[in-house]
Structures are given as C-alpha cells and as structure tokens.
Amino acid sequence: MIIYKDAFFPEEEFLSDAYPIKLIDDIIYEVDCQLVTVKKGVDVDIGANPSAEEAEEALEDGSEQVNNIVNAFNLQEISFDKKAYQGYLKKYVKKLAEKVKENNPDIDLKAWQEKVTNVSKKVLSNFNDYQFFTGKNFEQEGMIALLNYREDGITPYFTLFKDGLIEEKVVCINILSLNYINLDYQLLQINIHHYIINYSKAELFKFL
C-alpha cells in the first residue's frame, strides 16, 4: 500500500491508494470519500454509506458517523476566512514551487504556476463551499486538504496539490477474517496502527 505524506512534514499522512484517487491536470489529486459509522474507540472503516435508519440505530448504540479519510488519518479541521487562506496559499505555493524546481530542474515552472493559479481561483471563487484540514499534528505551514461535495450534493471529496505530497510504500497484510490469524478482536486492536482501511472487502492493517 502507498501512503501519501506531506512533502514538508512527512509525519503528516493524508491518503493511501486504498481510496479512489484521480490525478487532475497533473497538478491536483481528487479523492472521493464517504461517511461511515464507527464505534467509539474502534477505528474501523465499514466502507459503505449507511441508510438514515441504519445510521440512527448505530448512533443509538454509541457509534458515530465520520468521514472515512478524516477518521483514518486523524485529519484536523481548521478555519480560515478568505483573506487568511489567500495569505496561506501565497506562502505555500511559493515554497512548493521551490521544491518542485529543486526536484525537477527541467520543469516548465510557468506552466506549473498557471495550473496552480487555476486551481486557486476555483477554490477562492467557491470559498464558502470548502472545509479545510491539516494532518494530525496541525501543521498549518504544510499541506491543507480541501473538502467539498460533488454536484450531487452527497459525495464528499478531497482536493490536494500533487506536488505537496510524497509517497511511501508500507507493508500490509490482507485479512479476510480474524480467525485466519487466530487472534481475537481485542488483541488485534492492540497490535495495529491507529487506522484500518476497508479495501476489496478485506481490511488493510498498518503495523506499528
């Protein structure tokens, strides 16, 4: 599995390839996500949007509805007014351009900047439609992930600058059932990382 981390703060994880990632114009990633129901204290992505009735029953059982990517990577929502976000974006894009040029000296930086400007204009023109998320450590000088909804008004999706992320491969095990490894659920929870991602009807576990 590939984990996508902040290029400036690698301890901040934002995505994995277990989610449907689309590369748009070679400049941003768009990633559809969904609301899932989890039991408090158990980080499990059930991988499906519950019906209103199911959601109500789950909440009565002490569960809660969360965004699956926010929950899996412990993303932290922050607030911006438009002026503050413009200030952040100006500093971040300048820093990102330097990193892009350093990593790829032959890049057409002007063309890259035009693409970034187009994305920025789209976000700013629809500013009130977005929510903003840092990684788990609230690093506000690095990647800020943008959450919006598709035209159906139901499907949430994240937007992230491609060049603001680095990839790291991690070793996972594909577990079809808990009996397969002869461990009970409570013991398994102690030995896994803080998130579990639903993928191809099996869970992917990242070990500590």
Q: Count of DSSP helices?
A: 5
Class based on secondary structure composition and strand pairing:
alpha+beta
Q: How is the largest sheet built, in terms of strand order?
A: 3-4-10-9-8-7
CATH C-level of the largest domain: Mainly Beta
Mean pLDDT: 81
CATH architecture of the largest domain, by name, is Beta Complex
CATH superfamily of the largest domain: Metal Binding Protein, Guanine Nucleotide Exchange Factor, Chain A
Description of the molecule:
- One of its GO terms (molecular function) is calcium ion binding.
- It comes from Rhizophagus clarus.
- Belongs to the TCTP family.
- InterPro entries: Mss4-like_sf, Mss4/transl-control_tumour, TCTP, Translation_control_tumour_CS, Translational_control_tumour_p.
- Residues 1-170 form the TCTP domain.
- The structure is a single chain.
- The protein has helices at 52-60, 68-73, 82-103, 109-125, 185-190, and strands at residues 2-6, 13-16, 21-24, 28-32, 35-39, 63-67, 76-78, 131-134, 145-149, 156-161, 165-169, 172-175, 192-199, 202-207.
- The protein has 208 residues and is α+β, with helices and mostly antiparallel strands.
- It folds into two domains: 2-41 and 60-169, Metal Binding Protein, Guanine Nucleotide Exchange Factor, Chain A, CATH 2.170.150; 173-207.
- The strands form four sheets. The protein has a six-stranded antiparallel sheet, with no helix packed on it. A three-stranded antiparallel sheet has the order 2-1-11. A three-stranded antiparallel sheet has the order 12-14-13.
- The longest helix has 22 residues, at 82-103.
- The two termini are 15 Å apart.
- The model is unreliable at 43-49 and 175-208 (pLDDT under 50).
